[in-house]
Amino acid sequence: MTNTAEITEPREGHREVLESVVVRFAGDSGDGMQLTGSQFTLSTALAGNDLATFPDFPAEIRAPTGTTFGVSAFQINFGAREVMTAGDQPDVLVAMNSAALKVNLGNLRRGGLVIVDSGTFKERDLRKAGYDTNPLEDGSLDPYQVVEIDVSKMVVESVKEFGLGTRDALRCKNMWLLGLVYWLYGRDRQPSIDWLNNKFKAMPDVAAANVAALNAGHAYGETVELPGEILGYTVGPAKIDSGLYRNVAGAEALAWGLAAGTQLAELPMFFGSYPITPASSLLHTLARLKQFGITTFQAEDEIAAVCAAIGASYAGQIGVTSSSGPGIALKTEAIGLAIMVELPLVIVNSQRAGPSTGMPTKTEQSDLYQAVYGRNADSPLVVLASNGPGDCFYTAIEAVRLATKFMTPVMLLTDGYIANASEPWMIPDFSTFEKFPVKQHTEVDGFEPYNRDAETLARVWPVPGTPGLQHRVGGIEKDFTSGHISYDAENHQRMTDVRHAKIDNIANFIPEQAVDQGEAGGKLAIVGWGSTYGPISRAVSNMREQGRDVSHIHLRHIWPLPRNLGELLSSYDTVICPEMNNGQLSTVLRAEYLIDVRPLTKVEGMPFKIREIEAAIEAALDA
Amino acid sequence: MNQQAPIQYKPKDFATDQEVRWCPGCGDYAILKGVQKTLAEIGTAPEDEVFVSGIGCAARFPYYIETYGFHTIHGRAPAVATGVKLANPDLDVWLVSGDGDAMSIGGNHMMHLLRRNIDVNYLIFNNEIYGLTKGQYSPTSRLGTRSPSTPAGSIDAPVSACGLALGAGGRFVARGIDRGQKELPGILKSAHAHKGASFVEILQNCIVYNDGVFDGVVDKSVATEAQIHVKHGEPLRFGAENAKGLKFNAKAMRLEVVTVGEDGVTEDDIIVHDETNLALAQMLAAMDRPDFPVAVGVIYNNPADVTYDQAVHAQNASAKASAKITTIDQLLRSGATWQVD
Ligand SMILES: Cc1ncc(C[n+]2csc(CCOP(=O)(O)OP(=O)(O)O)c2C)c(N)n1
Ligand code: SF4
Ligand SMILES: [Mg+2]
Fold this sequence. Notes:
The structure holds two protein chains of two kinds. By secondary structure, chain A is α/β, with parallel strands linked by helices.
């Protein structure tokens, strides 16, 4: 396929070699930025780089085109070394229109590269984007390297032969720019060409136009002299453990982990949910995995979703429900019921920013109190946290294991960042996973609904349909063994104690807390949980390379806490806890261990920057 | 399947060892008796029966029935029952709610259970009051009901349970009376036989907080005039010697109470009950004192071809049959992968 008739010889020259780069694609939400980003991610992974990505959606589905609140972005950090985060600051900004430039320029590294479509800087565009003067002319781009191309015009030209209207032609703009960026980093276009041909199988003209645009953008890079004599860059392959890899987003890995968990437990799963950002993708993914013995149910609200899951658990399946903070709040009373009747239940919270509706598309870790403490009365349950997209797979399996082994609700915390971000993931060999088949109770002799396992304190799981085990359970306080209604004072004390002891005792069935980097004891420990893993890990490794005495501890088990954690944290002079909330884990650790854990907090809807954590480490060690 | 003769159950096989804690004289006792009798007659094994309830006096019901029982939280029994039935469609699932539980806090779930048409039997004990919380007015309380929270009388219009159920798309709607022991088991058996969500409103006397609220309907002295017992295929007649009946006034599009033999009304003018007729069901459900008798019996029974639980399992089965990815290893390797050496 060729549409490059006018193009002459490719330019000669050498590509500059870089260790790592952060590229940010930004445009209108209708411009296909997430799709562009995921194609670039795939080609980057195939080129052997390590990488991390951060999709940054606007709250509006289709805000008016050309406005700043409709800007959608996708950031990728890739390198020849291990990459832990999507990058503090972009080195390259690809802006599909003036509004995208306006929103994203502020964060670009000084001296970084801006690629803009100069066709979107007409007076009307500027007005919509909120520019008083044209940034291409008023000197505001002077601190950067700027590549101005009238991409709109070039795209229309390059797809002319396919007979598309201007509007449809302009929809190929993202592919034109992707082609140019492919050239910039010496990427293979073929996987994206194959992908386009497959995606638009039913519309061959659209497929051909997109491929033509991709090729045209690439050809432009090859032939036209870019300012600053940019001759393209090379980012070498990273040293990566050998194995089979794929890209995986958190929501996907979580769904697969739940499916895997049900297989290991050898029980069907029931998933009840009500749509909410950013949790819906879990429902969408599981709805396509019914062949794994999974029933999905879109309920009328979050309360019905969790109640149906509890009903399914009562009837012998693994009940799972999922939401984000506001929806979890609605589920709270029902979670209390699951605690009372001691049934397995997995509750996934994909956290988002702010109280009430807050900022649905922005990430935060501020539901930790809600998870650990947020119910009426003394109502302990298990809380786990995933530290990144791929880790969701393992945490989901752990959630199913603990819920069924201990007959308890388990709250699994992820967040908007983890749910949407994707990362290369080494595919595990599932046959090596240890099964944990669940035994439901069938023995009639001596049966009481609150008989407990002496070791785990889990109550028996008698399932309707089993002859001879008819019994009644409910949310009213019940007798220690018979489960009959009991308002007896001593019995309530005893039941409260055993519910508490059952959860505490789980600490004996989870791994001791390991030190992720560094060693036990020393000047400083950074203790984190959830999606702060990437920036903490990179910051600590950078500081350790400089010879600083700092260690990284990252919690997966938030409640109960690992049994050695108190002692471990006490072995450092200083403990800092970075989290995307106002200091919630810090408070829990202080309360549990009477240790002066120092919070490092941030709630800006974005993950921590490596630099911010490095600065905190330096300040603590230099103090 | 083994060919053993089915066990003959007696009502007392469905009684538990629990002390029943309703107030003496509460209408719930009669309903309990009616349900136990019904279960014995249906003959399903007790281990295959599940009673799910919300919160309220009525919702204590599962503790007194020797089957599986789940006393859940206020208003949410329909949602819990949905999970039970979807997890195991072989179970006979019954729900018990009070009027507040079902139509106030749980109104949303009631509506969705009915429109989804999950194969469960939903019994509402309507005493037109909040019994358990000591007598506040409820969404079915008549205008002017004096209660601790409405000392000067309630001022909001009540909802009709059967009307609401029909409006929500319920395909089986019936009304019974706590003390109507002859009729209640029959209604409950029809509800059980209906595949899909079956809704049964049972007028229940709360002797403590709303005593006699249904006297104008159920008292022996008025019952023949105040009730009409609807039966599919039979003329809608009532009153002493069945003299009265319901006639459709086509011009005004409404029902009329007429007397056969008076004003030229003949037997032919009386509507024959067709339980599959939704428009008729809506008119029957809406009838109230003093202008009309209250309809008792199966008002509407029009099963759908498939119930929601059947459809869910059919989709699950077809996903299983047609899936290309059937193992976790295949799932993890689906899509683009690459080897790093
Ligand atoms: C979340 C919640 N809110 C309020 C209550 C208090 N409450 C318990 S039963 C009830 C109303 C019961 O009325 P109804 O459903 O008509 O049942 P009845 O007692 O009349 O049989 C209320 C308000 C509760 N248990 N839970
Ligand atoms: S308060 Fe009313 S409804 Fe409740 S048990 Fe007593 S009589 Fe029955
Ligand atoms: Mg009531």
